[in-house]
UniProtKB/TrEMBL annotation:
Enzyme Commission code(s) on record: 5.2.1.8
Domain of life assignment: Bacteria
Disordered as annotated region, ranges: 425-458
Family stated for the protein in its record: Belongs to the FKBP-type PPIase family. Tig subfamily.
NCBIfam families found in the cross-reference section: tig
Purpose: Involved in protein export. Acts as a chaperone by maintaining the newly synthesized protein in an open conformation. Functions as a peptidyl-prolyl cis-trans isomerase.
Broad enzyme group: isomerase
Name assigned to this protein: Trigger factor
Annotated catalysed reactions: [protein]-peptidylproline (omega=180) = [protein]-peptidylproline (omega=0)
Domain notes: Consists of 3 domains; the N-terminus binds the ribosome, the middle domain has PPIase activity, while the C-terminus has intrinsic chaperone activity on its own.
Gene expressing this chain: tig
Positions of the PPIase FKBP-type domain: 162-215
Length: 458
């Protein structure tokens, strides 16, 4: 077999492959055998029809077509390996010549990973927010804990701000009660903003048994985004009482004996959270600086697929679960369709570019992923997906996604290498040590593009 590579642009090549006819022998034998099992000819047992009879009855062309389709994937793969290419997606194959008992020649155009030169990244410098926890931050954290331990007591009076009311709700659109617009025994804290716009003004001043009607835009359900006439009936009013901020509260709400110990622990927790946020910020800003240093041509077909995937996932998974259409989402975000398309394209370009650059770094730095690292990453992904580690691991294996997870871990390690070499200072001018921080995940394309294994056919 002879093959040659022509570079059409930095991300696409054309392979020209010429195959001596004798190399098709195994595929021709397999084609005759397959046709033998599919047809019947009077006077011959099934599976025992001679090749010459098949040629006469069904045409040599049908046999050749079957043989070429069987052989093409191997010849294509051999040519790719010989040229040391990294193909992305399915090739466009064109049979140029097929002469019986002489030669088969074909071309295959395919997107490939661009050649990337990683520059010296040791000079990268970034600034991140300083880790500062104020007394006000601590008091706010303690107050939130205090809110969780509030008690309620039913009262015989009109509802006020901060009260907890139990209500029945009925929503109508165009005068019709919605099937999913009726709810009973809903508990709501007035002023929390956790239910419907307008409900606070409607229930304030009502006692148990009181009823009011107001108009509100529905946030979810079958009529999400539409104006509804909502009837609310108060069945109970209860006042909320917060526990005193003292040592007794600390013992009730935590493992600490004193309020000062609780405050000190809250401060430590807030510092840890801000340190994690600082590390994530550092990684994001170092990555942005790295990407600025590297020229990466993006395959147009890969970019188009990535944009479509992101749009599909947003519209048919994330938004549909919230009962929103894309148009309604854009309205809420205050964006035009053109702005959304531009942002999606920019995010897709960055995701693909990030993947290419970090994968090249993995190769350059010869980074490997061990079982412990993969397991730790799997546990984090399982937690974020809401699945148990065993369920997530089973889904990953069954979906053939293990290589994808390995790639994610490897890219995280590559980014960590760059962050370690960079100079990171906070807004106070202090050098930040990120050695003890967890690795954040760099945003890349939805899935590694090269893992789309598709078979070329004539």
């Amino acid at each position: 077999m002879k093959s040659a590579v022509e570079t059409l642009n930095p991300t696409r090549v054309r392979l020209t492959v010429e195959v001596p006819f004798e190399e098709l022998k195994d595929s021709l034998d397999a084609a005759y055998k397959k046709i033998n099992q599919q047809v019947t000819v009077k006077g011959f047992r099934k599976g025992k029809i001679p090749a010459r009879v098949i040629d006469q009855r069904f045409g040599r062309g049908a046999v050749l077509e079957e043989a070429v389709n069987d052989a093409l994937p191997k010849f294509y793969t051999d040519a790719v390996n010989e040229a040391e290419l990294n193909p992305l997606g399915q090739p466009e194959v064109d049979i140029k010549e097929l002469k019986d008992n002489e030669v088969l020649s074909f071309t295959a155009e395919v997107d490939v990973r661009p050649s990337i030169e990683i520059p010296d990244y040791s000079g990268i410098e970034v600034e991140v927010d300083a880790v500062e926890v104020s007394d006000e931050d601590v008091e706010k954290s303690v107050e939130q804990l205090r809110e969780r331990f509030a008690s309620t007591t039913p009262v015989e009076r009109a509802a006020e701000d901060g009260d907890v009311v139990t209500v029945d709700l009925e929503a109508k659109v165009d005068g019709e009660i919605l099937e999913d617009g009726v709810a009973s025994g809903v508990s709501y804290t007035i002023g929390s903003g956790e239910l419907l716009d307008g409900i606070d003004d409607a229930v304030k001043g009502l006692s148990a048994g009181g009823e009011a009607t107001f108009t509100s835009e529905l946030k979810g359900g079958s009529a999400a985004g539409r104006e509804a006439e909502v009837t609310v009936k108060v069945t109970q009013v209860a006042s909320r009482e917060l526990p005193e901020l003292d040592d007794e509260f600390a013992q009730l709400a935590s493992e600490f004996d004193t309020l000062e110990e609780l405050r000190a622990d809250s401060r430590k927790r807030l510092e840890n959270m801000k340190q994690y946020d600082q590390a994530t910020q550092a990684q994001e800003r170092v990555l942005d600086k790295l990407l600025e240093l590297v020229e990466v041509p993006i395959p147009e077909k890969l970019l188009e697929d990535e944009i479509n995937t992101r749009k599909h996932n947003l519209e048919h998974h994330q938004l549909s679960q919230m009962g929103l259409t894309l148009d309604k989402y854009l309205e809420i975000q205050g964006k035009t369709a053109e702005e959304f398309d531009t942002e999606t394209r920019e995010a897709s370009v960055k995701g693909i570019k990030t993947q290419f650059v970090l994968d090249e770094l993995v190769n350059k730095e010869k980074l490997n992923v061990n079982q412990e690292e993969l397991t730790e990453h799997l546990m984090r992904r399982a937690a974020s997906s809401g699945m148990s580690p065993d369920q997530f691991a089973q889904a990953v294996v069954e979906g053939g996604q293990v290589p994808m997870l390995v790639g994610e871990v490897a890219r995280g390690k590559a980014l960590a290498v760059v962050v370690e070499a960079a100079t990171v200072k906070d807004t106070n001018g202090e050098t930040v040590d990120l050695d003890d921080e967890d690795e954040a995940e760099p945003e890349t394309a939805e899935a590694p593009a090269e893992e789309s294994e598709e078979t070329p056919e004539a």
